[in-house]
Protein 1
Amino acid sequence: MSEGRERFKIVIPRNIIILSLIAFILFISLLFKDRYLEYKKYSQIYNKVKNENQKLELKIKDLKENINELNTDDGIEKIAREKLKLIKSGEHVIKIIDNKGEPQNE
């Protein structure tokens, strides 16, 4: 009985296989398009934040250097002279007066 049966072979035309592959590729591309766009968006945000972080790290480094410089005796003296207009004992202040009789700002 099994000898009498012919094996059935399923024949699928080549065009149907090609169209099925194209449809599958389109489906997959549509499925992952949103995820790819989301990835690009977050990638740009990450790069922007990374650049800002590098700038802030440089600023922190500069500020730490300024703090270290100002914590020296010379730095303290510089601030006292420039900002607070202090002088050492024994020094004399000379103010230059313009033609109108008013002291000039330094």
Protein 2
Amino acid sequence: MQITFYPLLGNQNSKNKQGGIIMGINFFRRDTRDIEFLLFEHLGMDKILSYAAYSDFSEDDFRMIINEALKVCKEVLGPAMQDGDQEGCVYEDGNVKVPESFHEC
């Protein structure tokens, strides 16, 4: 299923011509600098990695994990949360209905 991003002008619950969900514009903007500062400069991850239990890991491994998590947030969670902000969730007859894009997460 194709996901299309569009400016928040119009019907949030519509589908595009290919049948994909049209999601809200993505305002998720983060970089890795804060996380890397905390892990590598402030907390001293190099000391933790010197222990035998963590010797198989490196700073590059942590950077890769952080970058992949950020990618998921930017490409999947950010747009879905935008739809959640616009459409909201509805509690009806004992069930919670969430925006359609949440199901893609």
Protein 3
Amino acid sequence: MFDNLIEDYGQFAIMVLVFVVGAAVYGGYLYYQRRQDMDKVNTNLKNVSTPGNPTQPPPLPNQPPNPTPQSKQSPGFVPSETFKGEKKGYVFKKGDKGLGYYKEN
């Protein structure tokens, strides 16, 4: 009686066994990945400054000096060795006064 069952359903049993083993391996892999992610987060949290263990913040990038005109009129030229972003009403170019921001005409 059991001989016929094994002959008839043996391949099905092997397929089920392979599926169960594959699911277990995949579940273990997902667990491992989650543990790795949690370890990374915990490491990053340890590196964050705390009141007892302050770390220095990263240095700020060089900010272009904002021209603060003395009067209501903006200066016609703001010297700058490099382009430091768009400035409203100015064009960055090399002109008579050198490299920098020139007032748009």
Protein 4
Amino acid sequence: MLILNELGVAFASRVLGPLPTALFLGAQALMQFSGFFAIYLSAHAREPFVFMGVSSCLLIGALVFVFGGRYGPTAAAAVFLAVVGLYVVPMSIAIWSRRRAEWQRA
């Protein structure tokens, strides 16, 4: 992105800057952990992640609407990263560890 700006490429101004791009990439990397746990538990033909998935989508949507509209794409990316890091990943670990222990006992 920085190189495109330096070269004067016309569409470079339409691409997000380095900071929001890095924040989105970090959030997506963290989301992979939640996906791994969900796939493991889906192998047991159960879906305990439904509530966490719906609630995190609503939380991300509401916060991005408020902060992204007010402060721009960097705030939207920061909110996304914060929700994933502070809510999605910890909840995924908690759900996975609790369900795994329950299902292995049965």
